[in-house]
Design goal:
Layout: H1 8-24, H2 28-35, H3 39-46, H4 54-63, H5 68-77, H6 81-84, H7 96-107, E1 110-115, H8 126-134, H9 144-155, E2 166-172, H10 173-177, H11 183-197, E3 202-207, E4 222-227, E5 231-237, E6 242-245, H12 248-264, H13 268-281
Parallel strand pairs: 1-2, 2-3
Antiparallel strand pairs: 1-4, 4-5, 5-6
Length: 282
């Protein structure tokens, strides 16, 4: 679906509850009768129009026959409102369709990124991000600094002592060679990649032309987010909006693509060796 018109946490809770009901093969009418609520309430929750309480989640999932661990995970997720809304103080920096992603990303435990054209955003230095933003047709000149700060704030998840994001990025040699900014800026960006790759929760792989084709050669960048083992979704960005995929079969297709990219790309160790050689050549 195109960017959901609702706060990220409320939306993902609705998606998960709708999925659980569908898997139980209960209609909204039947589910409402069994739980003792109105059909309208279930519809509003599933569409992200109403935030379910922990008790709502527990009662609905119990009726749907969910395992106890699934109930505990989703009720715990429902308490993370502040994390999901971290971006609200910076909401004027980026378009609304991206703030939804930023909220979901803050909730995620794991993220896979395929970015063939640029250094992935979470791994960009402020200087590199500023140079990229300056060329964007979608960012007003007076918002450039805000966008860069927003990207820096996202990147802090990678070193969060309370629970860093596990990140697996695949980019291309072509992206790393692109003439963005000065040679010194590009060298600093490559050195930053080396530093980030030293983190136990960050994996970087690089695709080269000589590595051959792969399963997603006909598509562009995409992201897969995993949230507390509760939900997995794919995110595909367009020029002026984004698509969020939650259907299990469609997400599985993107996961298969991600797996093939990992197979074709250089190993993390060989990718790091390549970055070191690129630094030496600058």
């Amino acid at each position: 679906m195109i960017t959901p018109p609702t706060p990220p946490l409320r939306w993902i809770l609705g998606v998960e509850l709708a999925r659980a009901r569908a898997e139980s093969k209960l209609s909204m009418t039947k589910a409402a009768a069994l739980v003792g609520v109105t059909k309208a309430k279930i519809a509003n929750i599933e569409l992200g129009r109403q935030t379910p309480s922990a008790e709502d989640i527990r009662r609905l999932l119990t009726v749907y026959g969910a395992e106890q661990r699934s109930i505990l995970r989703l009720t715990a997720l429902a308490k993370r409102t502040e994390e999901a809304n971290w971006w609200t103080t910076r909401s004027n920096a980026v378009p609304r369709w991206f703030t939804i992603f930023a909220g979901l990303e803050r909730l995620a435990d794991r993220e896979f990124v395929y970015e063939p054209h640029l250094v992935p955003g979470l791994l960009q230095t402020p200087e590199y991000a500023a140079a990229v933003t300056a060329e964007s047709l979608m960012v007003r000149a007076d918002r450039h600094e805000d966008v860069v700060k927003f990207r820096e704030a996202r990147g802090k998840r990678l070193t969060d002592p309370d629970g860093p994001l596990t990140l697996h990025c695949i980019t291309t040699k072509w992206a790393l060679e692109m003439a963005i900014g000065t040679p010194d800026m590009r060298r600093a960006q490559l050195e930053h990649l080396v530093k980030m790759a030293s983190l136990p929760t960050v994996t970087i792989q690089i695709l080269r032309p000589e590595d051959g084709t792969h399963a997603v050669h006909a598509t562009g960048a995409f992201v897969i987010l995993e949230i507390d083992s509760v939900s997995k979704l794919a995110y595909v960005e367009m020029l002026d909006d984004a698509v969020y995929l939650t259907d299990r079969a469609r997400v599985a297709t993107y996961q298969a693509g991600a797996n093939d990219l990992q197979r074709v790309a250089l190993s993390p160790a060989r990718s790091l060796d390549l970055v070191h050689r690129m630094i030496a050549d600058l």
